[in-house]
Write a structure and sequence with these properties.
Layout lengths: L4 E6 L3 H12 L4 E5 L13 E3 L3 H10 L4 H7 L1 E7 L9 E6 L1 H13 L4 E5 L2 E7 L2 E7 L4 E9 L8 E4 L2 E4 L11 H7 L5 E7 L2 E3 L9 E3 L22 E5 L2 H8 L23 H7 L7 E6 L6 E5 L7 H8 L10 E3 L2 E7 L17 E3 L9 H19 L13 H12 L23 H11 L5 H23 L1 E2 L1 H10 L9 E2 H5 L6 H7 L1 H7 L4 H12 L1 H18 L17 H10 L4 H5 L6 H12 L1
Parallel strand pairs: 1-2, 1-9, 2-6, 9-20
Antiparallel strand pairs: 3-5, 4-5, 7-8, 8-9, 10-11, 10-19, 12-19, 13-17, 13-18, 14-15, 15-16, 16-17, 21-22
Length: about 625
């Protein structure tokens, strides 16, 4: 019945969908196995994509030929560019999404992708031969052979749902858990652990009083995630903001003695940066209120996501507290919030390609690696799918560098440092974030996507035009002067010091108070020159001008660090023989088996003196 596939992807969440699409678009025959064909690309938690650092990841996936940015743009309710008051390294795109349409568009995109087949069943075990993954077995007894397997099981591995004192088996509300895989992998020598995440109650938007809340609209001129020109919805939806209060907090506290978090029934660690409402009240007792974001789940539904009210307290306590929030006095609950506890595998057991070290041709991606978030999962799936295809075709592997992408930062963090709590991406995790901006992801990564066959010639040519055109604008500002009299009137209005002589436009535009539109108003020649270019190109040029010296300094640091990244280490190097290394360093290096000296230097417990010892031996 089944042919032998090149790649089997287990799980059809965000990681699984990107893995399947990437491998198939590169030419592999792919089988996507999911327990429910109706929940492909389900947004299990918040109906949104992007955010701080996460938005950069979505743009990076898109720049290399992934689908997440395109699907998000097609299903956007509202779009906002966050952190515009800060420098461009912090700008982060975020979009509210129509949850149902998002899943539908993902399924349609996968069905339209050549080389992808689907199978609805639970994978209960892997077929391992000669220390290599060669297929899967399903719960109904099917054996399906393949050359590689990508596991993207999300929160389903031995998943447990918690609502107060009630516990149910499941990976998501009304969906059963996946069993068998963890037990097999542990028998094979893998280390596993437990993590937890949670979700808030959903309510009937018709029962809310929005007049007591603050409106939160998206950008007037919304941007997009994808660098393609796909059509987007013209309609927009509003979100709202309200707050908890002391009455809400006191009501919630009444249920703490029945909370699975505080009674010890939940063993797994939850996400530090997305705590439950009861955790917030407990940890931040000095605060008398917490912000609640009221988010619509789609264009054609009244269901509302209560962002900021994630909880696993008993449903009666949830409801009693909920109706004391301003605007929620008459709220009708559709379903209560809950926590889900699940198995994960510490990612130090992986290589930088996301292939496991113990079993060849077996890849892990997404929450199975201890991450949280759709975007973090999607980029791992994308890279795992690519590398699965490359390996079975005897092609060079793809390893993303920390200096070229947030994706590279995320994977290096996981593989090199590991994680004991759900890992979430932040701009602060990237030491070169000034170079890894959302506006230049296409410039940084499209050549890689093109080389892999995921980006067309036409799309790469468009990127090259953007580079050439932005350079053209910068060159124009270097040679074109600006009239001192007209400039000083503008500078005075902007509280910027006056000019004492005529200067080039580049000099004035370098000032933090002055933007490109200010110059256009006082320079006819500049305004005429810019009329030939689109807004993205103009924005790129302005960023180059304003931050040129910072970019040059950052690139110098990258170039210096690259010398260590280029020092390869033999994966079979026997660190136990280097008695000059500290005992901890020997243990950590033997476990992680770093690919380069740079990666070795980032391992917790490996000191600069240990690196010096390694440099001597590598030099020999």
């Amino acid at each position: 019945m089944f042919k032998e596939y090149d790649v089997i992807v287990v799980g059809a969440g965000h990681a699984g969908c990107e893995a399947a699409a990437a491998a198939a678009n590169m030419g592999s025959s792919v089988l996507l196995v999911t327990m429910n064909m109706e929940t492909i690309a389900q947004m299990s938690c918040n109906p949104a994509m992007g955010g701080v650092a996460k938005g950069q990841i979505v743009r990076e996936i898109d720049a290399m030929g992934g689908y997440s940015g395109i699907i998000s743009d097609k299903t956007t309710l509202q779009f906002r560019m966050l952190n515009l008051s800060k420098g461009p390294a912090m700008w982060s795109p975020r979009a509210q999404i129509d949850r149902k349409r998002f899943a539908e568009e993902w399924r349609l995109a996968l069905e339209r992708t050549d080389n992808i087949d689907f199978w609805q069943d639970m994978v209960s075990s892997l077929i391992i031969e000669d220390n290599k993954a060669v297929g899967v077995r399903t719960s109904i007894g099917s054996e399906i052979r393949s050359k590689s397997v990508v596991l993207t099981n999300g929160t389903f591995l031995n998943g447990l749902l918690h609502i107060g004192e009630k516990t149910f088996g499941g990976g998501r509300s009304a969906e059963k858990a996946a069993t068998g895989i963890t037990e097999q992998l542990v028998q094979l020598g893998f280390e596993s652990g437990r993590m937890k995440t949670g979700t808030p109650p959903r309510v009937d938007g018709r029962s809310l009083n929005y007049s007591l809340m603050e409106e939160q609209w998206g950008d007037e001129n919304p941007g997009r995630f994808s660098y393609t020109d796909i059509d987007r919805p013209t309609d927009k939806r509003c979100c709202w903001i309200t707050y908890t209060n002391s009455n809400v907090h006191e009501t919630l506290k009444e249920g703490f003695d029945r909370s699975p978090m505080f009674t010890g029934r939940i063993k797994g660690l939850g996400p530090r940066y997305c705590p439950s409402i009861e955790d917030k009240i407990n940890r931040f007792a000095e605060r008398d209120r917490h912000q609640i974001f009221v988010e619509p789940e789609g264009f054609h539904t009244c269901e509302i996501y209560v962002n900021g009210f994630s909880t696993s307290l008993p449903e009666d306590v949830q409801y009693k507290a909920l109706i004391q929030i301003p605007g929620f006095e008459n709220a009708k609950m559709f379903r209560p919030g809950y926590a889900v506890e699940y198995d994960f595998f510490p990612p130090t057991q992986l290589g930088l390609t996301l292939e496991t070290k113990l079993i060849d041709n077996l890849y892990f991606a997404g929450q199975i690696n201890g991450t949280t978030g759709y975007e973090e999962a999607a980029c791992q799936g994308f890279i795992a799918g690519i590398n699965a295809h490359l390996k079975i075709n005897q092609k060079a592997e793809l390893i993303m560098k920390r200096s070229e992408s947030y994706i590279g930062v995320l994977i290096d963090d996981l593989v090199t440092k590991g994680t004991e709590e759900p890992y979430r991406m932040f701009t602060s995790r990237a030491e070169h974030r000034l170079l890894l901006r959302q506006d230049n992801a296409d410039i940084r990564l499209s050549p890689i996507g093109h080389a892999l066959g995921l980006i067309s010639d036409e799309r790469l040519e468009k990127v090259n035009h953007k580079i050439a055109n932005s350079d053209n604008i910068v060159a124009f500002t270097r040679k074109q002067g600006i009239d001192m009299t007209e400039a000083n009137e503008m500078l005075e209005n902007l509280n910027s010091s006056a000019l004492t002589q005529n200067v080039k436009i580049f000099s004035v535009l370098s000032r933090p108070q002055v933007n490109i539109d200010d110059i256009r108003k006082v320079s006819v020649s500049f305004n005429e020159h810019l009329s030939k270019f689109d807004q993205d190109t103009i924005e790129q040029a302005e960023i180059k001008i304003k931050y040129e010296s910072y970019f040059l300094k950052e690139q110098e640091i990258v170039n210096k660090m690259q010398k260590m990244e280029d020092k390869d280490i033999n994966p079979d190097f026997d660190y136990s023989q280097l008695i000059s290394l500290s005992k901890e360093a020997r243990e950590k290096l033997l476990k992680i088996k770093p690919r380069t000296l740079g990666q070795a230097s980032r391992i917790s417990g490996v000191s600069p003196s240990d690196i010096s010892v390694l440099m001597v031996h590598i030099g020999r």
